[in-house]
């Protein structure tokens, strides 16, 4: 299978200090040539426990408008819950290839859920240095437990606990984002599905790579989601494009990274910016991350909010079903 081939390539490459040509990015993408190394502003960090509510709203809105990404501390998810989430994810990726394959995405399936190697291809047909596991963690009606590992045994319990805290954090974020647009606090979360909003967890596993200067874990992209809430590990690798420079996201222990996704940019009619980001890899250590993509149900129609559109600020985006937007983007059709 393709997954086994890539892992074999990784093992071979580590012994030869080279990587196959299909993993070598073009010069405009290679981290060694495109990462900015001078003094740069840091991605904003926001304390969600800020007692000054107006300042909190202002900070969230400014970061979402100017950066499309920010880190949050005092976010309400206990450290031990995050530690357990990371532990069971790491245990899964340490299993034998045969056992991981039990959760593989079925060939030809329409869903993205399951285990596999993303092998994301850009227009030049290049491949990314990453394995992954996708599955929904909310709402219960959308969960398919056949993609939830049974080993380690605590995997389900840990993820269900994480989902409970994740929902509380999502509501807090959407409320502040709504207020930042001059809207009532409930507007954005309802506009992306409310109780039917889907929480898609992805675990990214980036094996050690002998030539991290030449390849990427994930090529530059924006997220399809409304927002993405990400748990990193201590191995750095997330980069964002800011003022035409690729800059590294600083690792902050116990902080979560919040990405503005495409649907939030559309709903805000461009006020909030969907962040262009990519992932680098490490020569010595495996990098892992746990993003949760907050996505509208497929049939939900998403477009610029009517409250934000007028003669002076006309709609900048199409209004359509989320599943149609997703189809166009995944198939590199105009969106």
TrEMBL record:
PROSITE patterns noted in UniProt: FE2OG_OXY (PS51471)
InterPro entries in alphabetical order: DIOX_N, IPNS-like_FE2OG_OXY, IPNS-like_sf, Iron_ascorbate_oxido_reductase, Oxoglu/Fe-dep_dioxygenase_dom
A GO term for molecular function: dioxygenase activity
A Pfam family this chain is assigned to: 2OG-FeII_Oxy
Keyword Metal-binding assigned: yes
GO biological process: flavonoid biosynthetic process; pigment biosynthetic process
Keywords: Dioxygenase, Flavonoid biosynthesis, Iron, Metal-binding, Oxidoreductase, Vitamin C
Positions of the Fe2OG dioxygenase domain: 196-296
Required cofactor names: L-ascorbate
Family: Belongs to the iron/ascorbate-dependent oxidoreductase family.
PANTHER family per the UniProt record, alphabetical: 2-OXOGLUTARATE (2OG) AND FE(II)-DEPENDENT OXYGENASE SUPERFAMILY PROTEIN-RELATED
Protein name, per record: 2OG-FeII_Oxy domain-containing protein/DIOX_N domain-containing protein
């Amino acid at each position: 299978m393709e997954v086994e081939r890539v892992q074999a390539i990784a093992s071979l490459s580590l012994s030869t200090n080279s990587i196959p040509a299909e993993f070598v990015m073009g010069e405009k993408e290679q981290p060694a040539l495109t990462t900015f190394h001078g003094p740069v502003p840091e991605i904003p960090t926001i304390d969600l426990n800020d007692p000054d509510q107006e300042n909190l709203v202002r900070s969230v809105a400014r970061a979402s408008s100017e950066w499309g990404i920010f880190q949050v501390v005092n976010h309400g998810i206990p450290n031990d819950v995050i530690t357990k989430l990371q532990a069971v994810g790491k245990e899964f990726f340490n299993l034998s290839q045969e056992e991981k394959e039990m959760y593989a995405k079925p060939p030809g399936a329409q869903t993205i859920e399951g285990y596999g190697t993303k092998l994301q291809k850009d227009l030049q047909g290049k491949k990314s240095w990453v394995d992954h596991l996708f599955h929904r963690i909310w709402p219960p009606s959308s969960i398919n437990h056949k993609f939830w590992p049974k080993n380690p045994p605590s995997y389900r319990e840990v993820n269900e606990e994480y989902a409970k805290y994740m929902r509380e954090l999502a509501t807090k974020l959407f409320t502040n984002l709504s207020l930042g647009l001059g809207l009532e606090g409930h507007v954005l979360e309802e506009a992306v599905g409310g109780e039917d909003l889907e929480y898609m967890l992805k675990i990214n596993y980036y094996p050690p790579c002998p030539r991290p200067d030449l390849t990427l874990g994930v090529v530059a992209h924006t997220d399809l989601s409304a927002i993405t809430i990400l748990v990193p590990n201590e191995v750095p690798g997330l980069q964002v494009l800011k003022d035409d420079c690729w800059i590294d996201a600083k690792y902050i222990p116990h902080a979560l990274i919040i990405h503005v996704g495409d649907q939030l940019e559309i709903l805000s009619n461009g006020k909030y910016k969907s962040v262009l980001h990519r992932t680098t890899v490490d020569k010595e250590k495996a990098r892992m991350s746990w993003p949760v993509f907050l996505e509208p149900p497929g049939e939900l129609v998403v477009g610029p909010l009517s409250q934000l559109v007028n003669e002076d600020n006309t709609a900048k985006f199409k209004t359509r079903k989320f599943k149609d937007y997703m189809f166009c983007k995944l198939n590199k059709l105009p969106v």
